[in-house]
Amino acid sequence: MNPPGVYKINLEGGVGRFDSLERLNPEGYFLMPMINPDASSVLFWGRQEGEKGFNIWRNDLNGKDPVKLTDHRAVSGHPFWNSDASRVVFFSTLGVSPETDWNMADQFKLKRSPRNIWIMGRNGENPIRLTEGPYVDERPCISPDGRTVVFVSDRSGYMNLWSVSTETGELRQITKHQKRDYRPIFSPKGDCLAFFSTNNSKGMDDLCLMKWPDGKQEFPLPEGLFKWVHGPFWLHRERTILFHARSSDGKDCSLHICRMDDMRTEKIQLPGIPVYTHGSLDAKEKILVFDTQTK
Fold this sequence. Notes:
By secondary structure, the protein is mainly beta. The chain has strands at 5-12, 15-16, 22-23, 28-35, 42-48, 55-59, 67-68, 76-81, 87-92, 116-121, 128-129, 137-142, 148-153, 160-165, 171-173, 181-186, 192-197, 206-211, 217-218, 226-234, 240-247, 253-259, 264-267, 277-281, 287-292.
């Protein structure tokens, strides 16, 4: 198998046009892209061929080569746009660990090398560390008003959700249980948080919604619909979420759009691509970016 790569494809009626498929990353190992609303820029992270460390990249979808935003002998990843695509939040082992490698199979383990949350400009300028200490702080997202970053941390001994103020640095624990929460993202209005969690009767990763900041949590998807659900991404239509999931029979892993009002779930069809994950869509829902590992 080839290493994972990041791709862009145009959609028509929920089906990808294969003639529009375009790889966005240089040679190497890259994953987890995030497109900004006007589809002008895509963030992703990974390791360029021959490089020591993992870094954050941007492709502006304008015919130019992708641009490296960080250049550390460290692991810097999980980049996330703010609402106007002027700033990027991410995690990095820079300054807290000598680690330069990352393994997807270990991404949910509790005992890993420390990493903290950072924020920088869209070109990599003015990086600022938002959290400190020997903790696993990762998978950040930023609220629409730019004041709050929610992230995953083992500070409680478990992988729960925490927040940090971009203005004061104040920390707050959001979820409090002995299960795993991961990949938080705010709704466009900032009044709801989506993530995936094992804090349910199945003990499997499933889509969770929580009223922000202190609301009750719910698992809206019908039980048995998927084996597990990862990577929620709010679309600009309220109550509509993109995610990737493993089918209930365990044979298929692909991207789906779910409309929460009627719980109608539709699979995005990408002919010729058997496994595709970590997707995001532009505001018009015409351009999809995703990662896949091909033969």
